[in-house]
Write a structure and sequence with these properties.
7-stranded mixed beta sheet, 27% strand, Jelly Rolls, elongated
């Protein structure tokens, strides 16, 4: 063990940035608050002509039954009517007008509008209106519900607060003997062998240390959330105009929150430091664990090595009278921990719905593609393959409508060529003649039905003369006897159909070799012609239908598998696009979405980031809208003065919002999926992403966003939130107490946190390791006006901050001045110089100190190490 305590190794100091958020609560006063929330809610209601009158009638009908309901004044209704009848959005009332609407009246109106639109949906359902109409009504109802709930949430708490910027500094301060890990007692003269074995397994992998660091940060975030929700520490300020309440997390690396009771005194001290110190203590324990990981050596490939070492030592108590004991102790690393406060910011809270809604589109496409995956199914029946004519939709055609055979229509749908429907074979013609006979006589006709054909009908033509004046008879054996062919003078038959006894066509369906026999009586020189009408055989038709069905099936199956492969490729491409993104890009995308939602909330849902007429100008220039390639020529000929005016409609407001808010320090707190539309719950809660933070962002139903107001913009921002003014320099009495609070926070920061006594004032010094340093080789004279200093480099210097010029020696000419301008990379301009400085012989230094903070707490932390300490004692009392 070292004989003297070691001094902290400041060069090895580790720093952790954190913050303590203190929301503020105003006392009851004039109802000119939440102006920006009111304006956003009214525009989000999307009032249509007649909505205000319908709400008015609804309220008037329901008020006699419940007198406790707040009334909505005529002036408020008139103001809302101007939102539903404007020709252009620019004619709507401004934020200042809406800010005067009492909060309870706006909430009552929004809830009544929800009831009115609910009744419209129910009425449309009962009257069986078209689904398109009902869908529009439901969308309108959903808009009103979101607007009403969003305003109720935002109006429930005061939006302003304070964020104390803090940092934790941890420096190694030596080692400390820890707990007893082993002991060996030895009696007088006793000897024993002690085996000491050491082993180690070293794993070297680049991704290991990165993963560990991310997991540690994630764990800290979860701990912060829990601490915030249970925080009871309070911050009291130099004003009797507000209280503090609420919690927050996110933004800068670590945030803890606190809430306050009422303000009671002008010089009340701050209790938020207590909560911050407790929070910092828990953080430093995790930071210490992380410091052990920093000793790992990492390379791009993974290497696992193991080693062990065994040694045996012989210990002997040389004393013959006294026992001894050998103790082994663990060694712990000692850290000096300091908590500084170095800044204060005004914050502004708001709640936005569905922060990741726009990012879900890719997941919607994935869901649709996965839904389209499935086994192959073929819904064409065997009986559907017919030559019957159909129209383009597969239905029997109306007169005059173009048509095609059904099997051709099916083939076109599946993109395949099929065999045509088998045509009927040509008819066969057979003739037979005889001499005739007074008695019976027979004539035969033989023929062969071609393969693939069958008999459809037999047509008979015959001429039979009389025999000695007696009239002849003619019959077809096996067929029906025809009265017209019997006992007729000069029997003459023309193309008569031969029927069977049951009335069907004789020999219908017969195939192969056939013979037809004719019976004659009292005939003279008979001549018989037989016309055999053929048709395609049923087996041939079935075979054709089977071939067509197989061709359709094969084509459909091939197309199905091709489509499935294409879907799988698209799914893989989308998943690759979603998952293979670096962490920094993910966080930037989420930050952009939060910023976009904030702008939409402030500027209204009717605000267009790209107005339609300006978009048309892009189209006129033949730009690539899908890839964002536009105006790469010599001029912007398509944009006229009117279009540029539209494009710049909100330019000043956008510039103000981007300048007034420290978007780099915005804090976001995500709320669960069930604050989203219920119909999407099932889809949203099943979203998956390899990055836990992105997955939480995608699943969030809404989000609380804490905007950090840039230093010096507090008064302007508070006036903007109340009446929409973006050029406020003087407090407006109509704005209420908000501006005075903003001014007090700014002054509170400038006073370097009065009321918070530093734990060690002598050590609350400037951190020179953060300083910006350069030298000047110029020769400058003293001056009461601005002086330009030639320097080696002006990089890193900041206009408005002080610099220390020259060194402190027996000349006593070292002085400080304020930088007023940085004209280029080799010059800086200061406000004045009290002493001349000559850098031509030896360049004199120019130093801009780092951040100065107030030390509000200092303590020590201990973390285990791999070291071991040994102690030998013969104190019998101690042994006992």
């Amino acid at each position: 063990m070292p004989s003297e305590p070691l001094l902290p190794l400041d060069i090895a100091t580790r720093q952790i940035l954190k913050g303590t958020l203190v929301p503020l609560r105003l006392p009851e006063g004039p109802d000119r608050t939440h102006g920006i929330f009111k304006y956003g809610a009214v525009r989000q209601l999307r009032l249509a002509p007649g909505d205000v009158d319908a709400v008015h009638e609804h309220l008037r009908a329901g008020r006699p039954h419940n007198e406790n309901l707040p009334a909505v004044s005529a002036s408020t209704l008139d103001l809302f009517r101007r939102f539903e009848k404007t020709i252009v959005p620019a004619l709507r009332p401004g934020l200042a007008a809406v800010a005067t609407v009492p909060t309870n009246e706006l909430i009552r109106f929004a809830n009544a509008l929800v009831e009115v639109r609910t009744q419209r949906v129910m009425s449309a359902d009962e009257q069986r209106h078209p689904q398109a109409t009902i869908g529009v009504l439901k969308s309108s109802l959903n808009t009103a519900v979101i607007a009403a709930q969003g305003f109720a949430i935002n109006a429930a708490s005061q939006p302003i607060g304070m964020l104390n910027l803090e940092r934790i500094e941890m420096a190694p301060a030596g080692i400390q003997r820890g707990e007893l890990v082993g002991t060996i007692p030895l009696a007088p003269g006793e000897e024993t062998a002690v085996t000491h074995k050491e082993w180690s397994v070293t794993s070297k992998e680049f991704t290991t240390i990165v993963t560990d660091a991310l997991e540690q940060t994630s764990e800290t975030g979860v701990t912060d959330n829990t601490d915030l929700s249970q925080s009871t520490a309070s911050q009291t300020q130099h004003s009797t105009q507000f209280n503090i309440t609420g919690t927050v997390q996110g933004g800068i690396p670590m945030i803890n929150g606190s809430s306050t009771a009422g303000v009671t005194a002008q010089d009340a001290t701050s209790d938020s430091a207590i909560g911050s110190i407790k929070h910092a203590s828990a953080i430093t324990q995790k930071a210490s664990a992380r410091s052990r990981q920093e000793h790992k050596t990492t390379i791009s490939t993974k290497t696992v090595t193991g080693s062990s070492e065994t040694s045996t030592r012989v210990l002997r108590n040389v004393s013959t009278t006294d026992p001894i004991r050998i103790d082994y102790f663990s060694l712990m690393r000692k850290w000096r921990v300091r908590l500084y406060r170095f800044g204060l910011r005004l914050t502004y809270d708001m709640v936005i719905p569905e922060p990741g809604a726009a990012m879900r589109r890719a997941y919607m496409e994935l869901d649709a593609l996965r839904q389209s995956l499935g086994p192959f199914s073929f819904n064409v029946k065997f009986s559907d393959i017919t030559p019957d004519l159909v129209d383009k939709d597969g239905n029997p055609p109306a007169p005059g409508v173009p048509a095609k055979p059904r099997y051709i229509w099916l083939a076109d749908r599946h993109g395949v060529a099929v065999k045509p429907y088998p045509a009927d074979p040509s008819a066969l013609f057979k003739n037979v003649r005889g001499a005739g006979n007074r008695s019976w006589s027979f004539l035969d006709v033989s023929f062969s039905v071609p393969a693939g054909a069958q008999i459809r009908a037999l047509h008979l033509s015959a001429l039979v003369g009389n025999n000695d004046g007696e009239w002849p008879w003619l019959r077809v054996l096996g067929a029906r006897n025809e009265a017209a062919w019997e006992d007729k003078s000069n029997l003459e038959i023309h193309d008569a159909t031969v029927f069977a006894d049951d009335g069907s066509e004789f020999m219908r369906g017969a195939t192969g070799e056939q013979n037809v026999a004719f019976w004659l009586w009292r005939s003279d020189t008979p001549s018989i012609n037989l016309k055999v009408i053929l048709e395609t055989a049923e087996d041939t038709i079935n075979q054709w239908r089977n071939d067509v069905w197989n061709a359709l099936y094969t084509a459909a199956q091939t197309n199905h598998f091709a489509v499935q492969q294409d879907i799988l490729a698209r799914i893989s491409a989308i998943e690759d696009k979603l998952m293979n993104v670096d962490t920094l890009t993910l966080r930037r995308e989420e930050s952009d979405e939060v910023m976009k939602n904030i702008l939409k909330f402030i500027l209204g849902t009717d605000f267009d980031f790209m107005p339609k007429d300006v978009e048309q100008a892009f189209v006129t220039e033949a730009t690539d809208l899908a890839h964002g390639v536009a105006f790469d020529g010599q001029s912007l000929s398509a944009l006229n003065a009117t279009q540029w005016t539209v494009l710049r409609q909100h330019e000043e407001m956008i510039r103000f919002i981007n300048q007034a808010i420290e978007w780099e320090n915005v804090v976001t707190f995500l709320y669960s999926y069930f604050w989203d539309i219920p119909q999407s719950w099932s889809f949203v809660r099943e979203l998956r992403h390899s990055d836990a933070t992105r997955q939480a962002f995608l699943r969030a139903g809404s989000a609380r966003v804490v905007l950090t107001v840039r230093k010096g913009w507090e008064a302007k921002w508070m006036q903007f939130t109340q009446d929409g003014a973006i050029d406020a320099d003087i407090a407006n009495p109509l704005t209420g107490p908000y501006l005075s609070i903003a001014q007090e926070i700014a002054a509170y920061d400038d006073r370097n946190y009065p009321g918070i006594p530093p734990a060690n004032p002598a050590k609350a010094a400037t951190r020179l390791q953060d300083a910006v340093y350069t030298t000047s080789a110029g020769n400058v004279s003293a001056s009461t006006g601005s002086v330009t200093l030639p320097v080696a480099s002006s990089a890193g210097f900041v206009v408005g901050l002080q610099v220390v010029i020259d060194t402190e020696d027996d000349r006593h000419i070292q002085e400080s001045a304020v930088i007023t301008e940085i004209p280029d990379e080799q010059h800086i301009v200061v406000d004045r110089l009290v002493h001349p400085h000559d850098g031509q012989t030896a360049p004199f230094p120019v130093l801009q100190p780092g951040d100065k903070g107030t030390l509000i707490a200092e303590w020590n932390e201990y973390t285990p190490s791999s070291g071991t300490d040994i102690a030998i004692t013969s104190n019998l009392a101690t042994i006992a």
